[in-house]
Design goal:
Strand order of the largest sheet: 6-5-4-9-12-14-15
Order of helices and strands: HEHHEEHHEHEHEEEHEEEHEEEHE
Shape: globular
Radius of gyration: 19 Å
Structural class: alpha/beta
Largest sheet: 7 strands, parallel
Number of helices: 10
Strand content: 15-25%
Helix content: 25-40%
Length: 247
């Protein structure tokens, strides 16, 4: 069983029972104690659970940590990111938001000449700097869970820039548009989209038919890049453009 599948099963079991013993997880998943302990350690570091004596309990959070989101659908995100990078022409000015699918683009930017990147993703900076890409980090309040700069100060900072292209993620996508549980992050995503010639959303299949608290961009204003093979026609028909990335 893939480790990502184990993480999902462990979380399902803990959600069902609220707390669980290691011995029960070993029996339910048919894996070794060492494997379960490693999985629980990762999920605790990712902010999904809390380890207790002999087991674990669930942490109720609206959002998933950066560590956890990078691990989930990592291959699909890499494929989406590679395709997204292929859309960028030399000399472009682009915006990269703090999402993990967007982060997957960065390693494919090296061969594109004279691009400029503006980002609110603190976690992107080392990778962009290593690639020697001219990069501007906006100001704002640090959102520690996702490594994003958000809030009114960040929105004001964004008003100094214009982008040829913006690349963004979302917590959910349905017929009403793209959504996030955080009002401050919604403000940044909305402002970045307004300042871009084209806005591309990078959404793996897990984001479909989910709706978070705040809608920040409509389908009609966006191009969607995804690995999802089955997409509601009502969503397809509203989009400016759709790119389905196969493995």
């Amino acid at each position: 069983m893939l480790k990502v599948s184990r993480y999902e099963l462990i979380l399902e079991v803990i959600k069902e029972k609220k707390n669980i013993k290691i011995e029960e997880l070993i029996e339910r998943l048919n894996v070794s104690e060492a494997t379960i302990r490693r999985d629980l350690t990762f999920l605790e570091e990712a902010g999904k659970i809390k380890r207790v004596h002999g087991g674990a309990v669930l942490i109720d959070s609206q959002e998933e940590s950066l560590l956890y989101r990078r691990e989930i659908f990592s291959e699909e995100k890499d494929n989406i990111g590679k395709f997204a990078a292929s859309l960028i022409e030399k000399g472009s000015t682009i915006y990269l938001d703090a999402g993990t699918s967007v982060f997957a683009m960065i390693k494919y930017l090296s061969g594109i000449e004279n691009i400029k990147v503006i980002t609110n993703g603190i976690s992107h900076i080392d990778e962009l700097n290593n690639k020697r890409i001219e990069t501007y980090l906006i100001g704002g309040k640090i959102k520690t869970l996702t490594g994003a700069l958000v809030g009114g100060t960040a929105a004001m900072s964004l008003k100094n820039f214009n982008f040829d292209l913006a690349f963004m993620g979302a917590n959910g996508i349905d017929i009403y548009g793209y959504s996030t549980p955080d009002s401050e992050e919604a403000l940044i995503k909305s402002e970045a989209s307004k300042r871009a010639g084209k806005t591309y959303f990078l959404c793996d299949e897990s984001k479909f038919n989910k709706r978070s608290l705040i809608n920040f961009c409509s389908l009609e204003d966006s191009y969607l890049i995804t690995n999802a093979k089955e997409i509601d026609d009502n969503i397809k028909n509203k989009l400016k453009g759709l790119f389905i990335v196969n493995q």
